[in-house]
Amino acid sequence: MLRPLLIALFPLLTVGPHLVPLPDAAVENRAKPELINVEDTGKKLPSNDRMEALAMENPIAFLENCLIRYDREVKGYRLTLQKQERLEGELKKKEIIEVHHREGPVEGGHSVFMRWREGARLAARALYVDGENKGPDGRSKMLVKPTGLGSFLTVERDPEGADAKKSGRYNLKEFGLKMGLQRSLAAFKDAQKEGALHVEYLGRQTVPEAGGRECFVLKRSRYKRPEADGITEQTLSVDTQTWLLVGTVLRGADGQLIGEYYFRDIRLNPTFDKDQFTREAVKANRR
């Protein structure tokens, strides 16, 4: 009886989970951009009024200050992610995901746990901890609780494997509020080098999808050439209180939605459960 069951489940168990992204990179045939680390000289951070002026006058300096503040203040967080992506030409349904994230280098390193609340496709839960759950190749694997028939199992998958790339624009190794800022900064700097950085400051706006937070909103357009997946427009929403990137919308030709990502219910530097980044959290039946 066991053999027929495993045969029936095999297609499901060999498919990676639907992983969660931050903006600005394609899945297929992409060269991953280098993440930019901004040097912290210890200077006092700008006031909010000055940050607003930088959003209008110098968006690169604006993002750099966001990253410096992040490094000074954030060691981890819990949040709710709302995302919708166009994959292989098809706009997928909206997903709501509970996220727990611990920054590295700390015990366990870069750690991400996700639990799908709505819109799950292939994974109900997923975990990646840098330096742990290593496979025979010595690389850290992702632990996944599949949806459907395989939901009673916990399986290991390559976080950068072909299946993972087909499931989302970013994998768990690439997830993080900081990485979103870093990728946006890298894209801005690349465009500036080509004399093609065009960013409009749209003012302070309340963003419902980000939990009604007031945000500095910047819109980049007039790209010299389409970027990954045909992106020709990017809108960033940065929380005016925390300077966290809480919203990104990516569009292509004729305003076609490529991806939108919103972060809300953010709780910074929480005390995580002792098993939050372990296999037990992936296996658990708790809601």
Which key terms come to mind for this protein?
287 residues; alpha+beta; outer membrane lipoprotein receptor (LolB), chain A; twelve-stranded antiparallel sheet; 12 strands; 31% strand; disordered N terminus
Descriptive account of the structure:
- The protein is an alpha+beta fold and 287 residues long.
- It has a single domain, classed as outer membrane lipoprotein receptor (LolB), chain A, CATH 2.50.20.10.
- It contains 6 helices and 12 strands.
- The chain has helices spanning 2-13, 48-57, 59-73, 162-167, 177-193, 279-283; strands spanning 76-87, 90-91, 95-102, 111-118, 123-129, 142-146, 155-157, 199-207, 213-220, 233-239, 245-251, 257-268.
- Strands 1, 2, 3, 4, 5, 6, 7, 8, 9, 10, 11 and 12 form a 12-stranded antiparallel β-sheet that branches.
- β4 and β5 form a beta hairpin.
- α2 packs across α3 (59-73) and α3 packs antiparallel against α5 (177-193).
- The longest helix has 17 residues, at 177-193.
- The protein is globular, with a radius of gyration of 19 Å.
- Mean pLDDT is 87; it is low at 1-30.
CATH architecture field: Clam
- The residue fraction in helices comes out at 10-25%
Count of helix runs: 6
> Please, what is the CATH homologous superfamily?
Lipoprotein localisation LolA/LolB/LppX
Radius of gyration: 19 Å
Shape: globular
What is the total tally of β strands?
Answer: 12
Based on helices, strands and strand pairing, what is the structural class? alpha+beta
* Overall tally of structural domains: 1
Low-confidence stretches: 1-30
